[in-house]
Specification:
By secondary structure, the chain is of the alpha/beta class. It is built from 13 helices and twelve strands.
Length: 345
């Protein structure tokens, strides 16, 4: 930092006459200037201290992209601006768990101030790679079952985050409103994704007592989603989709099967309605990202991750598409349409 000299030019003859008096004055003035430089330099260093946040997601699709955008927007609003006093490093695992592990190890080696891990596979990879760097997960349905935290009200470890867990009763009520004589529900999912297997278990526990059967269609990879959906043809009244990352990544192929087979798609991810679902009752993932960002801000400001409770959303949004309903062989009631936050044509 440069400072302008505020002292004028001295008359040399007068300075000689003043002798030691002037020398003392100059010495005192120089010392004061040095002290000021030192203090200002320390303040400037503190004000411009850079923070680094590493963000990883198991795959890029609309819901997870919205989470990432929400995190960055929240950081920006809180004064942590990418490219100014913040460096954001984002890496996608492109749906590959081995890649997720490699990204986690690289992030840990980089020693950022915090790591944001979006979706369960990425969160599990980061949690396995570090027990010291603060980690904030997001879009994880059951962080306890995923062994990310021992409890939701403060883990006592380096991990906290935001869950996208949904209550099942409103989901089931929506299914029965759309298909009143519902008897068979299809569920396409990735057997290797903890989020999805937990939802399958809970669906069976909730639907079986109501006389509704759950037909599971496992798909190991995104390329297997269409074949899994095709296996449900003639067996189910509808297909329910969760936030399974392989399924959401391949939703357009699922939509094609739904149109051809006249099997309505009902989702828990609202962005899936634009991509082919008849209806979805779920979390706003951009808002979830903002809540995740708030947690990151608290950590950057000095709070311990393990002292911050896991955030779980309370509000659910209903999105519907009468057009997709017609394409998939049903008609949405006016009551369902009227209750929707968004009607997508």
């Amino acid at each position: 930092m440069f400072y302008q000299n505020r002292f004028g030019h001295f008359n040399f003859s007068k300075a000689l006459l003043l002798g030691g008096v002037c020398t003392a004055i100059l010495t005192g003035c120089n010392q004061t200037a040095q002290d000021t430089d030192s203090a200002d330099g320390a303040t400037d260093s503190t004000a411009t201290q850079m923070k680094t946040v590493a963000i990883t997601a198991i795959v890029e699709h609309p819901a997870l992209d919205d989470v990432r955008k929400g995190v960055i927007d929240e950081l920006d609003e809180a004064g942590f601006k990418d490219g100014e006093n913040l460096t954001v490093n984002f890496q996608s695992a492109q749906g590959n768990t081995a890649t997720a592990g490699q990204i986690a190890k690289q992030f840990v080696a980089d020693e950022p101030d915090a790591i944001v891990a979006i979706a369960t596979p990425s969160a599990q990879s980061v949690a396995a790679a570090t027990s010291t760097i603060p980690m904030v997960f997001s879009a994880v349905t059951d962080p306890v079952a995923a062994k990310l935290v021992p409890k939701l009200d403060g883990s006592g470890t380096n991990v906290t985050g935001a869950s996208d867990a949904l209550p099942y009763e409103p989901q089931i009520e929506l299914m029965r409103q759309i298909i009143p004589d519902l008897k068979n529900v299809g569920y396409v999912y990735s057997p290797g994704e903890v989020n999805s297997t937990i939802i399958l278990k809970n669906l069976k526990e909730k639907l079986t007592p109501l006389g509704i059967n759950v037909h599971e269609a496992p798909a190991q990879r995104s390329n297997d989603i269409a074949m899994a959906a095709r296996s449900l043809e003639g067996k189910v009244d509808m297909i329910y989709t969760s936030t399974d990352n392989n399924v959401v990544s391949a939703y357009e192929s699922l939509y094609q099967i739904a149109k051809e087979s006249k099997i309505p798609l009902i989702a828990s991810d609202t962005s899936s309605v634009e991509r082919g679902a008849v209806a979805a009752l779920g979390v706003n993932y951009y808002d979830l990202g903002r809540e995740t960002g708030k947690i990151v801000v608290r950590i950057l400001n000095g709070e311990k991750a393990g002292a911050i409770p896991v955030y779980t959303p309370q509000a659910l949004d209903l999105y519907v598409s009468p057009k997709h309903a017609t394409e998939e062989g049903i008609t949405l009631s006016q009551a369902v349409i009227d209750n929707a936050k968004e009607v997508i044509e």
